[in-house]
């Protein structure tokens, strides 16, 4: 599914917090599927490439970019029928341009039936629905660390009890948390949810780096208290740190 693969850090975090069943429901509600008349994966790849787009295997799925790296679809075979799976937050204009190009390349109508029906239930076709808040869980547990991370991002977070509020462009993000439970974030007035996911993905990565730094300093302090010594430090490719500790007898 396109959303489950679109932003891996956020997606994996949400799956861990929400649980498999709730996460899959969220993915399903965020996916726009356009039915096709394609018979085989090879036919899809040939037609799409002739139309000027790519068709590459990614994580076991056939993936096509529509507009740079940020807008793409996955081709899914469900009950013997092929569909193109997009995020409901993708540009309708880009999707329609893609459909037109693919149909022209095929020399017949192979994709697009039902797109109007799908968009009828999509909030992107009803601007007034943008005022509705979108809420989903995060993996943030440490309020102080989350506040510090947001502050370093330059979004000027404000504390309201255990709640943290900040503004990103025209959107308001409110992080709610208590009793050591994972925070959940409420997003209001987001004209482009995909950008919000990208932003939260970056926050997620920085939060992890800050958490790693805190753990690192605590570990070194405990090593010193135990009268041990750090013999060497090595930073790996994934930015994790390996410490070799000399235990003095």
Question: Could you explain the architecture of this structure?
Answer:
This protein has eight helices and twelve strands. Helix 2 crosses helix 3 and helix 7 packs across helix 8. The N terminus is likely disordered. The strands form three sheets. The chain has a five-stranded antiparallel sheet. It has a five-stranded antiparallel sheet with strand order 6-10-9-8-7. The N and C termini lie far apart (55 Å). By secondary structure, it is α+β, with helices and mostly antiparallel strands. It is elongated and about 75 Å long.
Based on the model shown, name its key terms.
249 residues, 27% strand, 12 strands, alpha+beta, five-stranded antiparallel beta sheet, single chain, disordered N terminus, 8 helices
Topology:
Layout: H1 2-6, H2 8-18, H3 20-29, E1 31-35, H4 41-50, E2 56-58, E3 61-67, E4 71-78, E5 81-87, H5 92-106, H6 115-120, E6 134-137, H7 143-152, E7 158-160, E8 163-168, E9 171-176, E10 184-188, H8 193-225, E11 229-235, E12 241-246
Antiparallel strand pairs: 1-5, 2-3, 3-4, 4-5, 6-10, 7-8, 8-9, 9-10, 11-12
Helix pairs in contact: 2-3, 7-8
Sheet having the most strands = 5 strands, antiparallel
Principal-axis shape equals elongated
Integer-rounded radius of gyration: 23 Å
Number of helices: 8
Tell me the structural class. alpha+beta
Mean pLDDT comes to: 76
Strand content: 25-35%
The helix/strand series, from N terminus to C terminus, equals HHHEHEEEEHHEHEEEEHEE
> CA-to-CA gap between the ends?
55 Å
Strand order of the largest sheet: 1-5-4-3-2
User: Residue share in helices?
Assistant: 40-55%
Strands, total number: 12
- Identify low-pLDDT runs: 1-9, 121-132
């Amino acid at each position: 599914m396109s959303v489950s693969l679109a932003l891996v850090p956020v997606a994996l975090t949400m799956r861990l917090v929400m649980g498999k069943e709730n996460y899959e429901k969220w993915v399903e509600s965020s996916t726009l599927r356009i039915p096709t008349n394609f018979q085989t994966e090879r036919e899809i790849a040939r037609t799409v490439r002739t139309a000027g787009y790519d068709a590459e295997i990614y994580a076991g799925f056939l993936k096509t970019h529509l507009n740079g790296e940020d807008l793409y679809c996955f081709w899914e075979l469900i009950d013997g029928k092929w569909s193109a799976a997009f995020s409901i937050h993708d540009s309708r204009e880009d999707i329609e341009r893609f459909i037109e190009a693919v149909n022209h390349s095929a020399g017949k109508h192979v994709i697009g039936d039902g797109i109007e029906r799908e968009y009828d239930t999509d909030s992107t076709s009803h601007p007034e629905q943008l005022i509705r808040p979108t809420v989903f869980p995060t993996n943030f547990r440490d309020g102080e660390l989350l506040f510090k991370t947001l502050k370093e991002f330059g979004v000027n977070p404000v504390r309201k009890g255990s709640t943290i509020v900040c503004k990103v462009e025209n959107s308001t993000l409110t992080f709610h948390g208590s009793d050591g439970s994972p925070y959940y974030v409420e997003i209001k007035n987001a004209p482009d949810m995909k950008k919000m996911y990208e932003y939260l993905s970056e926050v997620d990565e920085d939060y992890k780096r800050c958490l790693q730094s805190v753990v690192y300093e605590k570990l070194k302090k405990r090593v010193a208290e135990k009268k041990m010594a750090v013999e060497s430090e090595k930073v790996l490719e994934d930015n994790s740190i390996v410490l070799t500790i000399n235990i003095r007898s």
